[in-house]
Amino acid sequence: MRDILNQLQHGAIMCWVRFRLLEVLENSGTQEAFWSLTQTLTRSMMADGVEDHLGVSSPKVTPGEAVGDELKDDTPGVSGEVMLVNTDSFEECHHELDTQFSGGEDGPVPNSPIRKVQQEQILTQENELVGGMGKVAVTEDEDKTDSEDRLQELVPSAAYVEEENLDEEYLQNPEWIRKEKHVFILSESGKPIYTRYGKEDRLVTLFGLMQALVSFVADSDDVIRCIVAGDHKFVFLVKSPLILVAVSHSVASIAQLLMQLTYVQNQIVSVLTASALTRMFEKRRNYDFRHLLGGTDRLLDNLLNMLDSHPSFLLGAIQCLPLATSVRDTITQTIIQYCSKIKNLVFGLIICQNQLISLVRMKKFLLHPADLHLLFNLVNATESLKTSENWMPICLPKFDPNGYLYGHVSYLADDCEACLLLLSRLRRHHCLEGINTAIRTSFYTVKAIGAPELRHFLYKSKTTAQFTCPEYTAPYHTEAEQRRLFGLYQLLHHRVHSVSRPLKMVYMVMDTQTLLGWVTREFELYAALEPLVTKHNAIIYVNKLLRWIKSDENKLFILNSPTF
Amino acid sequence: MASRKKILLKVIILGDSGVGKTSLMNQFVNKKFSNQYKATIGADFLTKEVMVDDRLVTMQIWDTAGQERFQSLGVAFYRGADCCVLCYDVTSPNSFKSLDSWRDEFLIQASPRDPDHFPFVVLGNKIDLENRAVSTKRAQQWCHSKNEVPYFETSAKEAINVELAFQTIARNALAQESEVELYNEFPDQIKLTNDNKAKQDACSC
């Protein structure tokens, strides 16, 4: 313990942050350099008047105000009819910040009826916060040699390692240590539940240490949020009765890591329900949750892989399978026709390869993208669903964290990847084989836009909580390049959502590409262009892109919101 | 994640400073002993797998600091323990007298559900030394008065009774574990959509 604490302090900087995540970033050496760089870039670009070219009326518009009057009317993907709860990408994080510090409550979607009904059951958690900022910043310059060194410092060394220990093998294993992102889940009493890499019962002392850190900070009426040591971030999410920890040296920001941990937490709630978690823990603080969560690691593994590569989580939005309106309407009508008689059917949806084909909902109920992501994950991670129709209890944490919906999952046909989910309160057998019609995957590449120097983009329509992006093409055809691009998107996303200094527009010229991030009230756009593209051309391409999306919006997005 | 068969026990070792908590743990886990005294700061963690009957049990041992100035880990630290090991030094009457306050402190901080039957084990350490000051009888009486707490006289230096003591610790904690394992909870039924009135204000837009 003391060794590890010492080691941590050695790693240049250690911070406990209460109020603002960014405090940490400002203190961190490498990040600092990067931010100042990007900020200078951004500022100079803004000074150059990129906004004017893009039709932004004034660079000093207050946040939330409509930008770009000419575009406003024909902003692609805007719809008054909404089927998904529209979200800010960082809704989760902001909520996290709020609740952890106000000693507040779970229950971000305020108007869910279920939540009102069952309010008394909602978990109480998080220490009430009183007192001043608990922040420690220690800077040491001597030992910033290379990342290898810093890695070693994070590992208990010297006397600690001499002891024969089960954890030793992992903590000594460079391959294990170097993993880009570790995720650990433990109970509040320090009992291991899950580790992304390795076996959790071989890391028992490490879990103990994590609990000790949480407990130590909690003792001064504070909550540990993160530790930054060199290029490593240790992000903590304390959600009684669980403690979730991410240890990352990827580009993902602290806020993004926190959001990812919230997804992981939601995944566990989705399996057990929040009330069951709390009840078990109230009954027995030493409860070993692995008993109840047996088999869940498959879902968690898959979720974490998706979080690292799928933009939908980052954007808090859903990708729709591009489909001609007539085809989609036929499918939707078929669902309505067959399912409208089923009592208590809350949602009926058809999904395919993590994309939404059609969603029909009970009037007055909206589906939250985060819940839909969990459904995607469930279908994605469960091979066995392909072989038969399945009934299973599913808790959708945003819909109601304390109860199960009955989910019916079936694939439409053996040769079709489309998958039907029906979520209802009651069990009822029914079949929908007839719907195996015109669903054909119709992806598009960025070539379709006709903007030669545009390489890839993500476009999120905020009102509908949906996004679209082209398939990866060269130079992003390899997995490594795709990961790199995803990291760049994370960066852009972080810049425009920065808590202390949110930006409406970022234009970054880099060695290997030019990045553009643009956020208005209606949409978020993140684009990667050729590194040598001129600003003038970039603007032309982006406008062209928006026009293209507009012309295809009915195909790319679901703009109506059918109900039973 | 582990199958049902794997069991993890959180064991907390408490006692005055210098009674040999770390040494006992080291003897049990690493089969090593050092005469040098190094105060534990905060806590140390060690793991050991033991077989109890035919079950493989992982013991997560939390060695704590006896010195007050190093006890800064917070209330939450003790929570969810499966067993608590109280240690004293048979040559130090004061360390024996402290057992009461250590036990009380633990029960207050960890607040186990059934304090009267929470598995404690008492270890009287350093029986290899000659200047013994607490008699076996006195210690046994104390243990008897606390609801028959198992008592062992150990020597971390000579490895006397250490293995046996920890075996008992694991066994007793396990007995508690399996007792509660019997009732399995069935999760919630959803009661949402029945409530028509609630439905009205469901739209969160």
TrEMBL record, chain A:
What Gene Ontology terms describe where this protein resides (cellular component)?
Mon1-Ccz1 complex
Instruction: Specify the FUZ/MON1/HPS1 second Longin domain's residue ranges.
Output: 343-424
Q: Which domain of life is it from?
A: Eukaryota
Q: What is the source species?
A: Homarus americanus (American lobster)
InterPro entries attached to this UniProt entry:
FUZ/MON1/HPS1_longin_1, FUZ/MON1/HPS1_longin_2, FUZ/MON1/HPS1_longin_3, Mon1
Q: What biological processes does GO assign it?
A: endosome to lysosome transport via multivesicular body sorting pathway; protein targeting to vacuole
Q: What is this protein called?
A: Vacuolar fusion protein MON1 homolog
Q: Where does the FUZ/MON1/HPS1 third Longin domain lie?
A: 453-553
Give the family this protein belongs to, as stated in its UniProt record: Belongs to the MON1/SAND family.
Q: What does this protein do?
A: Plays an important role in membrane trafficking through the secretory apparatus.
Every copy of the FUZ/MON1/HPS1 first Longin domain together lies at 181-303
PANTHER family in alphabetical order: SAND PROTEIN-RELATED, VACUOLAR FUSION PROTEIN MON1 HOMOLOG
UniProtKB/TrEMBL annotation, chain B:
Q: Name one GO biological process term.
A: endosome to lysosome transport
Q: What is its main location?
A: membrane
Q: Read off the Pfam families from this record.
A: Ras (PF00071)
Its keywords, alphabetically, are: GTP-binding, Lipoprotein, Nucleotide-binding, Prenylation
Q: Which InterPro entries match?
A: Small_GTP-bd, Small_GTPase
Instruction: Locate the coiled-coil region(s) and give their ranges.
Output: none
Q: From which domain of life does this come?
A: Eukaryota
Q: Does the keyword GTP-binding apply?
A: yes
Q: Which CDD domains match?
A: Rab7 (cd01862)
User: What is one term from the GO cellular component aspect held by the record?
Assistant: late endosome membrane
Gene Ontology molecular-function annotations: GTP binding; GTPase activity
**Subcellular location as annotated:** Late endosome membrane
Q: Which family does it belong to?
A: Belongs to the small GTPase superfamily. Rab family.
PANTHER family from the xrefs?
RAB FAMILY, RAS-RELATED PROTEIN RAB-7A
Task: Report the protein name in the record.
Answer: Ras-related protein Rab-7a-like
Tell me the classification of the organism that encodes this protein: Eukaryota, Metazoa, Ecdysozoa, Arthropoda, Crustacea
Please name the gene that encodes this protein. Rab7A-L
